[in-house]
Amino acid sequence: MELSPPPPPKLLDQMRERIRVKHYSIRTESAYVDWARRFILFHHKRHPREMSAPEVEAFLTHLAVERKVSASTQNQAKAAVLFLYKEVLQIDLPWLSDVTAAQVSKRLPVVLTPREVRALLHELNGTMWLIASLLYGTGMRVMEGLRLRVKDIEFERREIMIREGKGDKDRITMLPENLISPLRDQLEKARQLHNKDLAAGLGDVYLPNALAAKYPKAGVSWGWQYVFPSPVLSTDPRSGLQRRHHIYEQSVQKAVKDAARRAGLDKPCTPHVLRHSFATHLLQAGYDIRTVQELLGHKDVNTTMIYTHVLNRGGKGVISPFDQM
Questions:
Q1: In Å, what is the CA distance from 158 to each residue of 107, 131, 155, 183?
Q2: Which residues are catalytic?
Q3: Are 256 and 119 in a shared domain?
Q4: 49 Cβ partners below 8 Å, 6+ apart?
């Protein structure tokens, strides 16, 4: 009896497979697949092959007009749907000219004063204190800090290499002198945890792109381990292997939020606020804006320029006539 061929994979599974071929991060995979699902549900589960540019435009306009999403969120949804058409369905859509664009926000970032940073860090301890201190001391994004590998800390040169930052770019930032000793202590804790995993027949960490195939034993080497490993093991959603990932982003966000509440800070505090504060305080100290741009990893200096607006006192530095009476 002749066996019938297996059914083709579902559309979203095909999308996941294509994303992995392109070596996109697991976060991007999750976001893109979710946007593709929303697009299909918005059009009452019609297959994307039955739709084209008008349906894509209608979905993106709905996000901006009805859902009132930010410009960055709308752009992510657009990128996900276009990926579905171009990379999975092999369909090139015509130019999307009738999309109502989400309004680009022109808000200034939340910045803590040095006193507020000290108060916030005072309410943290242990690993969470070290992570928050590292974000403020280096200007790293929270995921850049959590993805930090042992091999990328250079104690002698007082440098930290940030790998695969936003835009898939590498850059170098400073290693604060006052964090050298706490970081060495953290590495010793991470090493003990890694040795425990190795003794249990585990210890293989996730490697980016195709490095696992190129260097089969690199995943268990000490240099590739995360500086901030998770206290618990988890199953890798792609390979199905049991591994020790890094600390969850949500854990750091909650720790910073709770610390800000205990410190009596009225400003909304997230880990990213520490990056904003790092940039602003460097500019206040007189460092060149191009240097700050390089440390932050901004592609365009105009992105860094927003911190110069935060430096202005009052209304663009103008002294009120009321204060001259």
A1: 34, 17, 5, 12
A2: 141, 166, 272, 275, 298, 307
A3: yes
A4: 89, 91
CATH number for the domain spanning 70: value is: 1.10.150.130
Same domain membership, residue 205 and residue 70: no
In a domain, 94, yes or no: no
Identify the top-confidence range among 1-5, 164-168, 305-309. 305-309
Residue 65 counted as domain residue:
yes
Number of structural domains found in the chain: 2
CATH of the domain at 288: 1.10.443.10
- Residues 79 and 118 occupy one common structural domain: no
Spatial distance between the Cα atoms of 324 and 319, rounded to a whole number of angstroms? 8
pTM for the full predicted model = 0.84
Residues 250 and 304 in one domain: yes
Q: What is the pLDDT of residues 76-117, one digit of tens each?
A: 999 999 999 999 999 988 877 778 777 777 778 999 999 999
Asked whether 276 and 307 are in contact (CB, 8 A), the reply is: yes
**Residue 173, strand partner residues:** 160
Q: Share the mean pLDDT of the chain.
A: 89
At 250-296, the pLDDT tens digits run 999 999 999 999 999 999 999 999 999 999 999 998 899 999 999 99
